[in-house]
Amino acid sequence: MGEYSVVFGRKIRGDLSSHAAFIAKVSLPAARKFYREFAATVKRLAENPYMFPVADDPVLPEGVYRRALFGKWYKIYYYIEDATVYIDAVVDGRRNG
User: Fold this and answer.
1) Rounded to whole angstroms, how far apart are CA atoms 22 and 64?
2) pTM over 0.70
């Protein structure tokens, strides 16, 4: 498999900022680690987005979205079209399921 392009949805920047701000209230190093782990997961998505499972969230369309876990509790929800990975959300599994 070749490399995939990764496209971020409009709200991803806000999602990341919100999560990092939440973490930074406790620890700035932990907030930096959050960003590093997110970037590493995005790199993995660009290499092979099929390595992560199909999301089983009943709110999402069946079989469309996949879920990549990173950090202790965070999830990236994305879908794949041709050679492009579209990231639609980054959620805190402790709060958003």
Assistant:
1) 29
2) yes
Contacts of 95 (CB under 8 A, 6+ apart): none
Domain that holds residue 28: 5-96
The model's pLDDT over 54-78, given as tens digits with 9 standing for 90+, comes to 998 888 888 899 999 998 889 999 9
- In this structure, what token pair is assigned to residue 21? 């701000």
Question: What SS3 string covers 26-77?
Answer: CCHHHHHHHHHHHHHHHHHHHHCHHHCCECCCCCCCCCCCEEEEECCCEEEE
Q: Position of tokens 């079209």?
A: 81
Are 13 and 90 in contact by the 8 Å Cβ rule? The answer is no
Number of domains making up the chain:
1
Distance CA 85, CA 97 (A): 22
Answer yes or no: are the C-beta atoms of 34 and 42 closer than 8 Å. Answer: no
Task: Find the CATH number of the domain harbouring 27.
Answer: 3.30.2310.20
